[in-house]
Amino acid sequence: MKLCYDGTNYHGWQKQHNGISIQAKLESALEAFSQAHIPIIAAGRTDAGVHALAQFAHFDYEGSMQPHQMLLAFRRHLPADIKVLEIQRVSSNLSARYQAYERSYRYLLAKYRTPFNRNYSGFLPAIQLSLLPMQKAASHLLGRHDFSSFGRANPEVPNHICEIKTLSISESEEFYEFIIVADRFLHNMVRRMVGTLANISHLSLAPETIDAILADACPKQNLVTTAPASGLYLIDVKYPATLLDETAQPPKLEPNEVNQ
User: Fold this and answer.
1) 235 close to 178: Cβ distance less than 8 angstroms
2) Which of 59, 73, 138, 258 falls 20 to 30 Å from 87 in CA-CA distance?
3) Of the residues 47, 60, 146, 211, which is catalytic?
4) How many whole angstroms separate alpha carbon 9 and alpha carbon 238?
5) pLDDT, tens digit, for every residue of 56-102?
6) What single DSSP character describes residue 206?
7) What residue spans define the domains of the chain?
8) What is the pLDDT of residues 200-224, one digit of tens each?
9) pLDDT attached to residue 177
10) Closest by alpha carbon to 26, among 75, 94, 60?
11) Is 217 exposed, middle or buried (0-12, 13-18, 19+ CB in 10 A)?
């Protein structure tokens, strides 16, 4: 399924004991019309306050309802801040989490805070931002690197190598918009890259500062700041075409651990 959501009122995607999650709401809706508890696995476990324009998830269903019927049933049982956009049958080998080969995020960094943008953009107080310094520094993040310095330490994820395919930054009257596309992301990686680029601009540091941060491969960096969750949007996830064909049975791929 493809879905979108406003993450403002949720403790992230993943089910937990101390707060309401997107996953819990979806599984509750699915149980309401299927009469069975069925796990729903997402492409990315977005954090509290993070939004999605195009999150993808899979579930195993053995009932008689057709995809278009399930789509309507989800919409009937879900709150207004979560919407299932599409449902389709796929290969039984597809894992929404492990078979994704590319993810895209948007980050909106506000130039000033208002009561109306506070839930849908990030804001870094007392930071002076300029577009060109951030663009020059961002070019050093492109390609395949060890992103240990930009991911929150997690012993369950020993592989910190990621490939940034696109990192564009544009400016409007109200926001700086970051578009970041990669094969995978570490936990907090997008937000930490945005915060670091903002610091480089504010402190008038050389673009090559990024090279030193990458080489250090340490998540405890003074220049690495985590930008607020409210500005982050998951906007696309890509899967091999063969796995989107329900009749195909390709060999299973090696898991590609993703935590963003």
Assistant:
1) no
2) 258
3) 47
4) 27
5) 999 999 989 999 999 999 999 999 999 999 999 999 889 999 999 99
6) -
7) 2-98+239-244, 102-234
8) 999 999 999 999 999 999 888 889 9
9) 98
10) 75
11) middle
**What is the distance between the alpha carbons of residues 180 and 49, in angstroms, rounded to a whole number?**
19
Average pLDDT over residues 124-150: 96
Rounded to whole angstroms, the Cα distance separating 163 from 185 reads 9
For 166-176, how does the pLDDT look when each residue is reduced to its tens digit (9 = 90+)? 999 999 999 99
What end-to-end distance do the CA atoms of the chain give, in Å? 19
Question: In degrees rounded to 5, what are phi and psi of residue 213?
Answer: -65, -45
How far apart CA 34 and CA 16 sit, in angstroms, is: 22
> What tokens appear for 99 in the block?
């078979």
Task: Tell me the whole-structure pTM to 2 decimals.
Answer: 0.91
The CATH number corresponding to 2-98+239-244 among 3.30.70.580, 3.30.200.20, 3.40.50.1370, 3.20.20.140 equals 3.30.70.580
Residues 6+ apart with CB under 8 A from 245: 90, 91
Which CATH fold topology does 102-234 show?
Alpha-Beta Plaits (3.30.70)
Please confirm, yes or no, whether 47 is among the known catalytic residues.
yes
